[in-house]
Amino acid sequence: MSAKRLPQWIVIAVLAVFSAACDTGGSNTVANPNLGGDDGGYNGPAARTEDIRSFQLNFWTFLKEDNRCGQCHGSGQTPTFVDLSDVNAAYSVAIQYVSLIDPASSQIVAKAATGHHCWLGQSAGAACASNIEQMIINWATDSNVTSGRQIQLTPPTIKSPGDAKSFPASATDNAPDSFANRVHPILVANCQGCHTETAQPLPIAPFFASNDVDSAYEAAKPKMDIDTPANSRFVVRLGAEFHNCWTSDCGTLPNPSPTSDAGVMLQAITDFAGAIAPTPVDPLLVTSMALNLGDGIVAAGGNRHEANLVALWEFRTGSGNQAFDTSGIDPSITLQLNGSYQWLGGYGLDLANGWAFANNFDSEKLKTFIESTGEYAIEAWVVAANVTQEDASILGYTGGSARNFTLEQNMYDFRFYNRIDDPNPQSLNGEPFYTTGDSGEELVQSSLQHVVANYDPINGRSVYVNGQLVAAADPVTGPTTIGNVVWDDNFAFVLGADAAGSNDWDGQVRLVAIHNRVLTQPQILQNFDVGVGQKFYLLFYVGHRIGIPDSYILFEVSQFDSYSYLFNEPRFINLDPAWTPGGFAIQNMRIGINGKEALAGQAFANIDVTVNATNYNAATGQLLSPLGTIIALEKGSASDEFFLTFELIGTASHTFVDPQPGAPAPPADPPNPVASDIGMRTFEEINSTIAAITGVPTTNAAIESVYADYVQQLPTVEAIDAFLPSHQMAIAQLALTSCSELVEDRGNIARTAYFPTFDFNANAQDAFDTAGERALVVDPILTAVMNVDQLQPANNLTTQPTEAEITNVLGAMTPQDLDPALAGDSYDSLITQLLVGGPNDATRTRQIVKAVCAAATGAAVMIVQ
Prior knowledge:
28% helix; 27 strands
């Protein structure tokens, strides 16, 4: 795994402690609320009811500080919902501005969302609002008002589908005002330092400055608002955020000068958008009323079980270099993002050599709350980038060489480390680890997965994947403890790596939650069923079509990724709880977007449902289809307009005519393509060939183990164009294991017969200080790999390296031996490179022989046939 060092963490941690303890000037420092759950110095009247006590512990305690709401609303300024002198009086005021049934609709949450006195910064209003919403949820949960977030359906503003602009099909459409003519040249000229696939030192997605105009066009669409060009992300980044301006004049919104960077970009997008003709809605269609995603009711996290929540990251911010903890429990553990990362549409982060970390001062909250109960649960929605990662840290509360806990991926397995009170030194590193691999199942997949890791002192560790308990036992048996002398409060919470910046993990993370109680299977299934990501309930009004007020088609809609929407489980519902259906039909429903029916994803085009009293439920309506479907994102989640069409709803009807298919294009390939004479060995052939080369039989225990782990990553067909990078990774592991068994002479493989005169007991510098000594290793290996004593040169591939060329690459003494043109160059052979910086002992000698053996054995010479 690549290493990413973060020595600044130590500095951050020290500065945080000293600044909190010693700051005597400038702005006043304010202590975080007491984490022990006591009254934090409050001397007023005691809470009169359990509900007021819950209000005090979950809401009042966290908002009464001067750096929150206490400075104004603690006394003097109305409303005094955090009255500092009387928590009962504060409760009587707060309850007027809070909804315990629907916390998201609370007036206090809406006010915070504007950035009003947000303690995380005015631009982080959404994060402060989420924190307060969660405080209200915690209050409601403890008061038995609700067991989680509840969603209330309210009618949206009714509007007709309008004529809308849509992005042209091609980057070159509408020339000379096409994207290729107007916008792309500006991006190529000024953004290629970062936003291309080949940018150095680190490419930053999206790659809208790519030289491939079609690829750039797809990446640029979400950054352009063709309805209101001034709102385009490209313009805002320059004119409001002054991001990488290419001249000294970035421009200032809302009216940048025409010659400024923002002005030039605005004019280019305006020209491009001006050439796009609106798409009129076909008047013959039977349509619902229209909605934008923002007209929906936010349903993200609806009905989740979140009692005993300690920390929560939902990654809703969508931009910037910070991810906020919105658990409502202080201190908020803000994650600083580093390396290569990308915010995902619909909430989430994509980490590709990227990682996030908190300082240890804030991370101590985890230790404090978890030690108070002695148990905890880690909950995460993740997508592994691949199943070849080993020892890859998804998340952890760590200090680098030791840890309090870590959730890790090792190829197909999840590993769970937990530090306990045990005299075994390994316990400081959370070992022995729990692994899902003991279940015999390959559980990690490159798809969205819900993972819960539980620990309690009686039952130990367990892991649930997608709601199901993994059948693997904790190797630590008997009662255990994570008492306050065990966990280290100097550790930091880290996402995507460990605290040393190594063991990095590549993948997407959509949600992370830490609970200071284990989650039961019903609670886990509840959260799994809720799902994850940015979700909305869209209520499409159809009352005008059936003559029944308050009638809607309800969809759960989420931005599935940065390029599409998921429309899920449509149902008919009437918001009047007293209404009873008399019976009417709904047939062949389609989804429209931006003035037209979507070209693909019409999974509901064949429904035939009668809404009647037998199947209708006043609380949940009537399900029309259990299916979901993907609809392509066009202009972006803020601009795309949706509506529904029907072939029949009530008495309104329209006959849909399938478009006539065009003439098929001529085949791109000749009728009988010529197959390559060059192929590759399949997995069984590779295993047997490596065994023949090294003399290590396929029945060797180490080989059987590695082969079982990697067999799914080895080639299954002989076609050379089917070769993948994952194949080479598996071949390298198999070759290295075989060479290691050979060199260490495990199982009496007869290393001496293979390398009859090489001295494996010599120090590395002595063992390889002459060309002759190096030949004692290289020659036997190449004899086995290339059959050099038997194979005639005429039988070699014309493009295959010769024995001499491979010998030089593996063991040449100097660059000039490799190629006379390299005289004085710094390029060295493999053996020479491995001698630099390593220990000078016999162990290093054996390691070098293994490396040479694996490099030759796993090369294309062996794979190609």
